[in-house]
Design goal:
Blueprint: E1 2-7, E2 10-15, E3 19-23, E4 32-35, E5 38-43, E6 46-49, E7 57-68, E8 72-78, E9 83-89, E10 92-103, E11 106-107, H1 108-207
Length: 220
Amino acid sequence: MYAVIETGGKQYRVEVGTELEVELLDVEVGTEISLDRVLLVADGDTAAIGRPTVENATVRAEVVRRDRGEKVISFKYRPKARRRVKKGHRQDHLVLRIADITLGGKSAAAAATVKSDAKKAERAKVEEAAARQAAEDAALAAKLAEKTKLAEKAKAAETATAETATAEAEAPAKKTRAAKKAAEEAAPATDTAAEAAAPAEAEAAADAPAPKRTRTKKDA
């Protein structure tokens, strides 16, 4: 619902919550005033047009603050007379906030409140559904994490069991390889000792005196 009002010789299109600057009125800041010069009230597809004003229509507004408009420069001069006049002006304004528009007992503020409450209820439902979905997602994530953790533990246990079995199976082979390696290491040592003893025995045999030959009667 919106309305067209007239104040200070100007017309304004307003809705509930609209803030507008009007010509200065003799009212205090913070008070609520009623604007009776309502030229038109429209609600959806229906409209009430005043001749000149709409009957049983009222616009209530709250006085927000007093303000001043932008500076306007007025410059006058007279040629060939050396007359120059420069003036500045800032118009005083009153800032109003539209609180309600009523027509024949129907209030725009009440309709806006109902609409706002409906939006809040719908938003609360959406937030509740989102919170419920988030809780369900968190529970499912925790469940999946627990399942993954149990699967990892089972896999680790299975891997440890397989490693233990492999180690037990490889133990005899390791022992056989170790014995073979020890035998191989012992064999070159024996051969080296035999090779070292052979020259000594040969040298001893060479240094030994030849046995004396005894002549017998047959030889004579």
